Amino acid sequence: MISVLTKRIIPCLDIKDGRTVKGTNFINLRDAGNPVELGSMYAQQGADELVFLDISATLEARKTFASLVKEVAEHINIPFTVGGGIRSVEDVAPLLDAGADKVSINSAAVNDPDLIDRLAKEFGSQFIVLAIDARKIINQWTVYTHGGTKPTAKKLFSWAKEGQQRGAGEILFTSMDHDGTKNGFAIDPLSKLNQLLTIPVIASGGAGRKEDFLEVFTTGRADAALAASVFHFNEIPIPDLKTFLRHHSISIR
To answer: Which of 205, 231, 131, 124 is nearest to 171 (CA)?
Structure first.
């Protein structure tokens, strides 16, 4: 699918113990600041959306903090996706009530694919983002769960297609091999996902330079690009990135 919609720039706030953190290849986490303050700053800078992931919720078998979601939502005026620890239809309503615009599911959907169907039926596909963490192992992209700690039998492309068929409204693909490396996004699998699917694909993992965003929107054909550390540590200011992309004829908000 070739998207004619405007491309989206999405800062990702990985939350652990109420703080924003960032690692490399899903390990070696370091503190990146207060999620409420960061979310507010990104909204003011012109981010198109935010993603807020409670990265330890699944590992610790607890639900995402609705109170923190509410506090973040009160400080921003852009769409906001929340994920981490969502395992049932009942887990979603409090997050949407707290101000989230969409929810992201990952490990629970791998363990119980019918969860995607139930959520889409209850809330609508437009509210459901299927997040997929994958790593390339012997020429196959293997899906991982539980914050990238557990390999599964699922493969990226077949799982993404199944997710779309079950009612996911977007796919958020993170290449674990590229995460935090700042060496560029996983262009080949992103391009293949775009050809395979009719729903939007969000690219995650590997942003380091403005040129990486240009490549992910052109060669990678992603609908949105998500990044964390380059924004958290002000290596690429969002207004500068958007100006750069417009100069290269990328349709951006």
So the answer is: 131
- Which range is least confidently modeled, 41-55, 129-143, 162-176, 182-196? 41-55
- pLDDT, one tens digit per residue, over 23-82 is 555 445 556 678 888 889 999 999 999 998 886 654 444 455 678 888 888 999 999 999
Q: In terms of CATH architecture, what is 8-247?
A: Alpha-Beta Barrel (3.20)
Distance CA 252, CA 6 (A): 5
Domain ranges of the chain: 8-247
Q: Which residues are catalytic?
A: 14, 133
What ranges in 4-65 are assigned the alpha helix state H? Answer: 35-45
Q: How far apart are CA 11 and CA 24, in angstroms?
A: 16
Amino acid, single-letter form, for residue 98: A
Which pTM was predicted? 0.91
Q: Is 74 helix (H, G, I), strand (E, B) or coil?
A: coil
Tell me the residue type at 77. Answer: N
Residue in this structure with the two tokens 């139930």, named with its chain if needed: 118
Closest by alpha carbon to 185, among 198, 172, 168? 172
Torsion of CA 90, 123, 11, 151, to 10 degrees: 60
E strand segments, the chain: 8-16, 19-24, 27-33, 50-54, 80-83, 102-105, 128-137, 140-145, 150-155, 170-175, 201-204, 224-227
Length of the chain equals: 253
CB 35 within 8 A of CB 76: no
